[in-house]
Write the structure tokens for this entry.
Amino acid sequence: MNLDVLSDSLEKILEQYGQAFKDKVFSGESSEEDDLMLVFGLTQAIKAENKQYWGRELGMCWQLIVTELCRQTCSNFSGPIREGADELCDFAVGKDAADTKYRIGSGDSGTLKKFKQYAARLKELGYRPILLILRNDNLPAAITACVTGGWTVMLGNETYEYLRDITGFDLQSWLKARKDRLRYNGF
């Protein structure tokens, strides 16, 4: 693993999102900030202006960072597992089929049914379904439904520890070292 190449690749993902956040202007849950928010200098007050936007964008940024980290550091990495139009997970590392989530805030029956179906199918294919969730302030009923549905759920520090174990890279420290590096200027 070349740490400089990995760091450069992860920086490019952050820079792309940093630029998108700088260009975004908005008109007039938990109070905890996470490591990814802090890279962009985001606060809960800023996110509250448009939760859907920030949740979607931070979620995609998190997915790309974790996927790239694993792609570059895990020799047994493979991309998404798909069946038809369905993407059962974001990637696999060995027999772990990982789906990344910034936060799970939806408890709607369609979403939970899909999670349950995907976990069952991944298990049939011989994988261990894992949710790698950055935030700790998830909807408890949704987390319970995911666990009951067959997912191994990792939250916050558990996610960072799992990633450190399989990649040898401390993503949490790497993100913390970039606090305010790409400060969002919409405030």
